[in-house]
């Protein structure tokens, strides 16, 4: 009967407690080694003294060897060895090397997130400062990719098991319509006509398909138009539609022109910058607060989110809104700045949870893989989808004097 020694640090460890087989006859080995012998019978068996008892138990179907332990002590892990695996103690991977490789992989992922995150932040900042068609076209491109990701989630196995997804050509048509909505909003100055026309076109396309139309197809397509097309258009209305000067002083009034931007800070530009910055602060403070103090789960939709993290995110969002309002002199009322930050936080949180709900039903972790280390477009912009509509409504309806 052939035998071989194996260092159990090389293999995955099973959480198992066993007493030593002090009376068993086994070859001499080190205290860190196990003796594995191949039985001649075809049925895999393992002889163990379990829980410190002196009764030997035969367990079938676990490890195709019989295991003996030299020294009389209790250990809490046993190595799993495959039947046909060649064991070479000299080339074994120690327990220290495995965490090191995992740590390197995590550091690599973190570097990707930081690099691409900074790149995205700088690019978005330049686009917001530029405004006009630059801002609108960039938003339309993001909307198109996000719409494609949404309809792929709808077609995923987790959601499609309980409903009939729209045909692929309907998904493509909806994605194109969603991308055209921001452009039409800038060109026409309003969004109502484009949304009504889009709903009519999609409904007619669904009704005239070859198969039998399903109500689930209509609802998922309509929600896609609303979620991916209609809501992002409010950022165009906020950034490009509110062109009233925002500053009471000359400080920085003509700064954007250096970069080819507008000659003065408008309400739309300042409100967009404050909203974007507040959302970033909310996500950052919520992450830090959740890691440091998170104990109470916020919702079952996203188990990693906690009430402690949400409170930290709310505080960071409001503080950022108030700070930037003092820098830009808009809005002049501190109470208005606090309310604006409060609204931005809940808009971002609701958008984040909505996308988490869609992904949970779809059975996926990320909406896509376009951005290394970050996932898809929807994973990055989910906090902004509802916030644009809330920010525009607040500035337009509750600040009739544009905060001055």
Automatic annotation (TrEMBL):
Location of this chain's protein in the cell: Membrane
Organism: Nicotiana tabacum
Superkingdom assignment: Eukaryota
Pathway: Phospholipid metabolism; CDP-diacylglycerol biosynthesis; CDP-diacylglycerol from sn-glycerol 3-phosphate: step 3/3; Lipid metabolism
Keywords annotated in UniProt: Lipid biosynthesis, Lipid metabolism, Membrane, Nucleotidyltransferase, Phospholipid biosynthesis, Phospholipid metabolism, Transferase, Transmembrane, Transmembrane helix
PROSITE patterns for the chain: CDS (PS01315)
EC number: 2.7.7.41
Reactions this protein catalyses: a 1,2-diacyl-sn-glycero-3-phosphate + CTP + H(+) = a CDP-1,2-diacyl-sn-glycerol + diphosphate
Membrane-topology descriptor: Multi-pass membrane protein
Protein name, as recorded: Phosphatidate cytidylyltransferase
GO biological process: one example: CDP-diacylglycerol biosynthetic process
A GO MF term: phosphatidate cytidylyltransferase activity
Enzyme class, UniProt record, top EC level: transferase
Membrane-spanning residues: 115-148, 169-188, 267-288, 334-351
Family, similarity comment: Belongs to the CDS family.
Gene Ontology CC annotations of this record: chloroplast thylakoid membrane
């Amino acid at each position: 009967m052939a035998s071989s020694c194996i260092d159990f640090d090389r293999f995955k460890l099973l959480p198992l407690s066993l007493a030593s087989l002090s009376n068993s006859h086994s070859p001499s080995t080190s205290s860190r080694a196990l003796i594995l012998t191949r039985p001649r019978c075809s049925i895999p068996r393992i002889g163990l003294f379990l829980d410190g008892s002196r009764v030997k138990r035969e367990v079938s179907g676990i490890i195709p060897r019989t295991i003996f332990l030299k020294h009389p002590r209790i250990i809490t892990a046993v190595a799993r060895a495959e039947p046909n695996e060649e064991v070479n103690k000299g080339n074994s991977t120690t327990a220290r090397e495995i965490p090191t490789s995992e740590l390197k992989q995590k550091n690599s992922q973190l570097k990707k997130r930081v690099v691409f995150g900074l790149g995205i932040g700088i690019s978005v900042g330049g686009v917001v400062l530029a405004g006009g068609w630059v801002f609108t076209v960039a938003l339309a491109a993001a909307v198109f990719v996000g719409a494609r990701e949404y309809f792929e989630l709808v077609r995923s196995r987790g959601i499609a098991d309980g409903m009939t997804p729209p045909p692929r050509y309907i998904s493509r048509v909806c994605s194109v319509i969603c991308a055209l909505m921001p452009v039409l909003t800038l060109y026409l100055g309003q969004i109502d006509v484009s949304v009504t026309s889009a709903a009519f076109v999609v409904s007619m396309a669904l009704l005239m398909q070859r198969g039998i139309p399903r109500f689930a197809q209509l609802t998922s397509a309509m929600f896609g138009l609303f979620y991916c097309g209609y809501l992002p258009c409010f950022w165009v209305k906020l950034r490009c539609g509110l062109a009233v000067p925002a500053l009471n002083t000359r400080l920085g009034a003509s700064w954007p022109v250096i970069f080819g931007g507008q000659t003065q800070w408008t309400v739309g530009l300042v409100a967009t910058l404050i909203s974007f910055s507040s959302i970033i602060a909310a996500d950052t403070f919520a992450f830090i607060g959740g890691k440091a103090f998170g104990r109470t789960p916020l919702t079952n939709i996203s188990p990693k989110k906690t009430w402690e993290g949400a409170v930290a995110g709310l505080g960071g969002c409001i503080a950022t809104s108030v700070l930037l309002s003092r820098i830009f002199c808009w809005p002049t009322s501190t109470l208005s700045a606090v309310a604006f930050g409060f609204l931005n936080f809940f808009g971002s949180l609701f958008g984040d949870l909505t996308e988490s709900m869609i992904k949970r039903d779809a059975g996926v972790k990320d909406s896509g893989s376009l951005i290394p280390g970050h996932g898809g477009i929807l994973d990055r912009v989910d906090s902004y989808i509802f916030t644009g509509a809330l920010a525009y409504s607040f500035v337009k309806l509750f600040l009739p004097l544009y905060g001055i």
